[in-house]
Amino acid sequence: MTASGVLQLLLFFGLVVLLTRPMGSYMARVFQGERTPLSPALRPVERLTYRLLGIRETDEMHWTTYAFALFAFSVIGAIFSYALLRLQGHLPFNPQQVSGREMPPDLAFDTALSFTTNTNWQNYAPETTVSYFSNMVALATQNWMSAAAGIAIAIAIVRGFARHSTRTLGNFWVDVTRATLYVLLPLCLVGSLALAWQGVPQNFASHTRATTLEGSTQTIAQGPVASQEFIKELGTNGGGFFNANSAHPYENPTPLANLLELLAIFLIPAGLTYTFGRMVGNPRQGWAIFAAMSVLFLAGLGLCSWAEARGNPNVAALGVTVHATPDQPGGNMEGKETRLGIAGSALWATVTTDASCGAVNAMHDSFTPLGGLVLLANLMCDEVAFGGVGAGLYGMLMYAVIAVFLAGLMVGRTPEYVGKRIEKYEVRMAILALLILFAGNVLWTGLATNVAGAVSRTANGGPHGFSEILYAYCSATANNGSAFAGLGGNTPFFNLTLGLEMLVGRFLMIVPLLAMAGSLARKAHVPVTAGTLATDSGTFALLLAAVVLLVGALEYFPALALGPIAEQLQMTAGRLF
Fold this sequence. Notes:
Blueprint lengths: L2 H29 L7 H15 L9 H24 L18 H12 L9 H4 L2 H31 L9 H26 L10 E4 L5 E4 L4 H10 L20 H25 L3 H28 L2 H4 L24 H14 L14 H12 L10 H21 L4 E2 L2 E2 L2 H25 L3 H4 L6 H16 L14 H31 L15 H34 L6
Antiparallel strand pairs: 1-2, 3-4
Helix pairs in contact: 1-9, 1-12, 2-7, 3-4, 3-6, 3-18, 4-18, 6-7, 6-8, 6-18, 7-8, 8-9, 9-10, 10-12, 10-13, 10-19, 12-13, 13-17, 13-19, 14-15, 14-19, 15-17, 15-18, 17-18, 17-19
């Protein structure tokens, strides 16, 4: 790793730390109904929205009602997106003349569920498959809706920890409205303009045909890219306007655009940790969560960067220079953009797999086995190292419940967390959410590896081919959307099974966590005593990070051993490092 690469990583993380408190404080004020600097402009719009939709702002919901509202919101959105994709040939803003033939029923089903669940898995080439109208209305709208829903669920679960002796967790429709108006809208307005300033297209022109210097013809795709690009990163969605995603120079044209997009991915997830601390009345609790996430993120980033900078020892044995020199960057540059390099590619891949963002600026299929292992492990740990908008926080709170339970067993005390006694029901719900995610990953992977038509869609055999299938289902379950890229997933089998697993990963995890939050909200506050475990300390942050890694290892080590670990041993003649 070069000095400039290290500085790039440190600059990014330093900016995340600086932005966490102001962003988190702002969101705490928004969701607690307090006045914000944007209230004079947006409060009238908020009131009008409630009036038009028949929403009573002061009405609150039991956790079951909150969950039902989420399902209704998502089902309507999925049906809406499916219909538009199938009918796109009859709709406006379609200079490419694409039609429903490019979106057959199984692919439209997979795509609609993918964007509804914040996954944005794309089994199609966007430039030739969807119209501008489909991109803007069927898909980009879902980027907003799924992101707002994720934030709302996180806030509802935080209220379960923050409130005492109540049966309600807030109002889903109010939370979604505020997330959209006060958080997503102003940030996307500024961010989209910044990307357009950096050279990201924003137009409705048809694809341009150009003659190259060699005399051949090249088709240059364009369209309303900037507006979709920023919400895909801010909402940790990840669906690319172009097939090359954020490796495409129109999506990611400059170093500044690359940095802005990276910051957008972590901005809300990191800020929500401070929001949690503010809402439970102890900001140190939020910083402890932030510290645990940072430990996991930096550990994965360090290993991935080291592995990619080290490169393949078999290539070095052939006499090829694999170290950085003034003439070449060194390391493993296969599948990477030369303008971004090792550091930029490793940072982006780690950030997007720690968050539920499927955007890529390098092909994960081309990473070294250890680099790929980090990306898989991030997905398998449920993307809690900051994670998706909302999903990262409530995923980490799930692990926090397990961590305080284990700590209570070790010291012989009833576990407590932020003034709430953690009892059998809460632990059961947290474990149930974990098992739902684990079962989906391993069962579908096991089935796919025994279906000849599925195995034949992998570009590689052996451990790497297994990793391609495993990564696909881990990505679907984690609502990430990135792929190893060696898997040809546009088949009825993968479209159906991946679509179903996206639903499982999004909604069947949320139900037990909302139930846990509802149970906690009913409990009275437990005063701190001399024997209370301090959960706002660095010790607890390390314990929490260790629990995440321990649970992930217990669940997935056999699968990792069959994939990236076996591949690493093959590459290094039996040595892991």
